[in-house]
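Dig into what follows:
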Amino acid sequence: MKRRSAEKMLLAAMKPGQIGEVISFLHPETPAVHRLAALGFLPGEKFIVERCRPDYLIRFGYTRLAINRKLAREILVYLVKVPSASGREMP
């Protein structure tokens, strides 16, 4: 994946079905971010958003995790574009 063409956004702006890659945390010193790190949700980790309401449900590896909106606004991600069968990129 080319980093230059990837779109940066907050996890809170993602929609169900979209794939992301963690870039960084805006406030890495918070206890919630330490808990995410302990679960393996670190920069470079790819994930898929399964649900956005009432909280964000994400899946990475064999882990499913619910993240509240406040924490989702603290996670900077790349939106990963996946090529479709027709050759066009899909978000």
Summary: The beta strands are 7-10, 19-25, 46-51, 56-60, 63-67, 75-80, 82-83, 89-90. The mean pLDDT is 88. The chain is about 15% helix and 40% strand. Residues 9 and 59 are 18 Å apart (CA to CA).
